[in-house]
Amino acid sequence: MLISLGDNFDRGCENYLMYLFLKEMKQKNKIILVKGNHEDLFLKMMYRGIATYVDERNGTYGTLIEFISKYFPLEEDDFFYYNAKEVYEKFRDEEILDFFYDMKDFYETKNYIFTHGFIPFNELDYTYKEDWRNSTKDEFASSRWKNGIQMSIDYNIGEKNKKIVIGHYHTSYGHVRKEYPSLDSFQLREVEFSKNANFGIYEDENIIALDACTHFSKKVNVLVVEDEDL
């Protein structure tokens, strides 16, 4: 079983092919799709009916145009702005929106919790939230933007007897803080994206982080585990 931690789209040139691959894997019951913040961005853009600067910067608008080109003849770059309702209805009828919407907030096995950014926590004092599994959709959406590596290192938030497996934030963030504890935040940021930055899997007592910042590093981290479903 392949478990995807989200952010399968944006900032690449084969987003629609990725969609077809994931859709086929889902139909064969070979994949668990956990929702990432970029999947949230796509849905929000579709529901809003207009693309923003944030959508363009994150590559979400580029993903949209790639999808649109498979169903409509593109005569101008701003096709979506003039045909948002038509695009929305087509994507709804083709069940593309359902594909994004139906992704899970998290997936749990005997020894692991798989999620995108991090599990929901008490944001007022940065502490563990006992009933996080019962969080609202908005709380889960907010957690997809959190830096789970920071939550583990700075606040020691974790799940008893389980590892939280996360994506979203580049693993070099954790590696440099483990390797260079004396550097300040500005120096750490430079090392995080240096030529010799380590984008391999990061692990500590609370988490296993996988995001290799693929757009930058051109690498994808894959974790293989043996475990029992709940």
What does this structure look like?
With 230 residues, this protein is α/β, with parallel strands linked by helices. It has helices at 15-27, 37-48, 53-58, 60-68, 79-82, 84-93, 96-101, 137-143, 148-155, 172-179, 185-192, 214-217; strands spanning 2-4, 31-33, 106-108, 112-115, 163-166, 202-203, 207-209. The strands form two sheets. It has a five-stranded mixed sheet. A two-stranded parallel ribbon has the order 1-2. The two termini are 14 Å apart. 33% of the residues are buried.
Task: Please give a quick description of this structure.
Helix content is 41%, strand content 10%.
* Main sheet strand line-up: 3-4-5-7-6
Which residues sit in consecutive blocks of at least 5 with pLDDT less than 50? none
Q: What is the distance, rounded to the nearest whole angstrom, between the alpha carbons of the first and last residues?
A: 14 Å
Total number of helical segments? 12
Shape: globular
Residue share in helix: 40-55%
Assembly type: single chain
How many strand units?
7
Query: Topology as H/E string?
Result: EHEHHHHHHEEHHEHHEEH
Structural class: alpha/beta
Largest sheet: 5 strands, mixed
Strand fraction: 5-15%
Mean of the pLDDT scores? 95
Instruction: Give the C-alpha Rg.
Output: 19 Å
